[in-house]
Amino acid sequence: MAKTRRASALEDSEAAAAARPTKRAKLDEAEEESSAATGSKPKRKAASKNIDKTMFPERHGSQWKVGAHASAAGGVENAIVNAAAIGANAFALFVKSQRKWTSPALTTTSITSFKARMEEYGYSSSVVLPHGSYLINLGNIDADKREKSYECFLDDLKRCELLGLELYNFHPGSTVGAATTAQSISLIAECINRAHKETNTVTTVIENMAGAGNIIGGDFAHLADIIAEVEDKTRVGVCLDTCHMFAAGYDIRTKEDWDASLEKFHSQVGLSYLRGMHLNDSKTPLNSKRDRHENIGMGHIGLRGFHHILNDPRIHNIPLILETQNFETPEQTWAKEIEVLNKLSGLDLAVDEGEAQCSAMAKEIKDAIHHADKAGGKPKRKTRATRGGKKKRKTEDDESEEGDDDDDAC
User: Fold this and answer.
1) Most exposed among 13, 217, 242, 405, judged by the fewest C-beta atoms under 10 Å?
2) What's the pTM value of the predicted model, to 2 decimals?
3) CATH 3.20.20.150 describes domain 24-39+55-374
4) Which residues are in coiled coils (predicted)?
């Protein structure tokens, strides 16, 4: 009997274990989608007809395409404006609610507006990295639950195609303690193969994970094994999350560390499969197996770690997406982080002036966070709860702790 309850708890937590963001923009999206689904008046942010682009930061002309996860509240087309408003050269978004199994279909108006704004604001589909639903677990050995995840996964891919997008980033899933890693990897690849046959163009981009519990993807070998079983290799790729890498034991703090970790990725997976990155510092030490995103330069990786990335030509022309702690006023944090990351390109840390500039830029980010906090933009503290309102117990799959102030395991 205890075993049955344990298995049930693991299954119930599988999606939550993979990711739980606290970003206000993402919460707004879930709230908006929920209202639409229930027929109540949605709390939508009306699309502005008179957007003052002169107030937007100048977008940096660089081959390193830095951006952030932009809110699509009020319509997916709004994500483009929100990205431009913080000076992003790339962006991520949810193409539907990340917390619901089913969502209203994209409207013709949203699809048309999205494509028009992509052209208007000069974004290529190659620098847009949509993020999949957090409920999806393609590695679940339970056929019914896996099929439910697959339908949600397929719906995401079809939405991407309707919007003219070419990439789709998702978390690989979990064994939920009921399957071997090899079994779950085969199930994930099987679902990808099915989805490729039911869609035409979108590349499925697998995200590396922090290595907690039964979560698949903490080891580069997991990614390689999934790709090995994918039939159409032209439509599969990888997104490397810096916080996840670090938490899983891949050091990136020095140039030597970064080069060694990227070489491990290349030897096991292949750099040709790298289609995007998530740029996040880490609140926890190397090899902690805990996914805790921190603002750039404020965590255990430090600004130097990101300097190596922003000066590595192997990282040219792919979306580099911030998933750092966001505030009620994201322009005060993400815009500053984007500005700083762009400044790192070409900066020589070997000279005293470069080191001083690096320290000054870290202070700029710290000050931006302080001002956002002081202005009342502090992120909401969340306590994870079950449907009954009780605090949820941790399981071996959890990558977060009860009562933590940020669960962003993107």
Assistant:
1) 405
2) 0.83
3) yes
4) none
